[in-house]
Design a protein that fits this description.
With about 140 residues, this protein is mostly helical. It has 4 helices and no strands.
Length: about 140
């Protein structure tokens, strides 16, 4: 392994459906900077700092990437649960009446989109920074 860390699209390219690709790069830089500036990070512990950064950020950023891809499927009615709602966009069903079943599907779609965004309202980068620092401290002291 080498003392190299990737940020932004080099680390995890994302579809635009959560509007968070650039935000992930900024958060990555924040966490990496905090770990590199940590008093326990030295030439000898640099590899631990870099692997700690990866351990903390990779799962989060990959989750955002997956939710972004999922949102694209929801927005374009490509998600199998809601595919019937998109028939009008393919030239079928134009002028059809919106049924109670359609309304139920639309409510379900809205709930699915809301759930896909929950992470944005419930996560805090400071929690990741604290967790990264604590993990680095534990790992350095274990060596």
């Amino acid at each position: 392994s080498s003392p190299v860390a990737f940020l932004g699209d080099a680390a995890h390219a994302m579809t635009p459906h959560q509007g968070s690709g650039a935000g992930q790069a900024i958060e990555n830089a924040y966490i990496l900077g905090a770990l590199l500036a940590h008093p326990l990070t030295t030439r000898e512990t640099l590899q631990l700092a870099l692997s700690t950064y990866e351990m903390v950020r990779l799962p989060h950023a990959n989750g955002v990437m997956e939710r972004s891809r999922g949102n694209g499927r929801l927005y374009e009615f490509a998600e199998p649960r809601f595919a019937e709602l998109g028939l009008g966009s393919k030239g079928q069903g134009h002028g059809r009446i919106c049924t109670d079943a359609d309304k139920g599907q639309l409510r379900g779609l809205g709930q699915a989109i809301h759930e896909a965004w929950r992470w944005a309202w419930e996560t805090d980068i400071e929690d990741d920074r604290k967790r990264a620092a604590q993990l680095l401290e534990e790992r350095v002291r274990a060596c």
